[in-house]
Amino acid sequence: MARYTGPVCKLCRREGQKLFLKGTKCYTEKCPIERRAYPPGQHGPAQARRRKQSDYAVQLREKQKVKRMYGLQERQFRNLFERAASQEGMTGENLLVGLETRLDNVVFRLGFAQSRSQARQLVRHRHVQVNGTLVDIPSYFVKPGDDIAIRTKSQELAVVEGALTSRTRPSLVEWLTLDQKNRVARMVRKPTRDDISAEIQEQLIVELYSK
Description:
- The chain is α+β, with helices and mostly antiparallel strands.
- Helices cover 41% and strands 8% of the residues.
């Protein structure tokens, strides 16, 4: 499946805020958005001067922001939305919980990788186990009670070691527990909307896809 391979800082500039696509590096490097607070391209400054966007444009930008934040393609994101809509409860909250419980995001939240793209690579290269079984599907949904571990042969990987010892490593979320020494973790409960601190207006995404 095609995936964006260009400069990720351009994506942050397009959305007008830091998406932390470089993971912990975003805390230490000076982001281009701080120097050029307008969308990329020759018409970027003109777009920044526009005072008002249509409702559709606001909804689209929110969807694009979240999609890029979690590193999904449009079809993946749409499928996840349809799954969320078919579940009980609020669709927007179900969508965010679905994004958070993807294996690649869980590996990132545990601090085994410095970004979601790096976590996705760890999963695809068969370095991650769920309940003792190798899983190489980043979109695998982790459930409460599942054990997530870096396989024994991969525990000393420089990528994993560097992520776990990074000074800018985010705090561990409450719905996960981690045995850092043995590189083993567990999802103790399903995340809730209150556990997701990112500035996301999920209702805008629901309105966009409900048209």
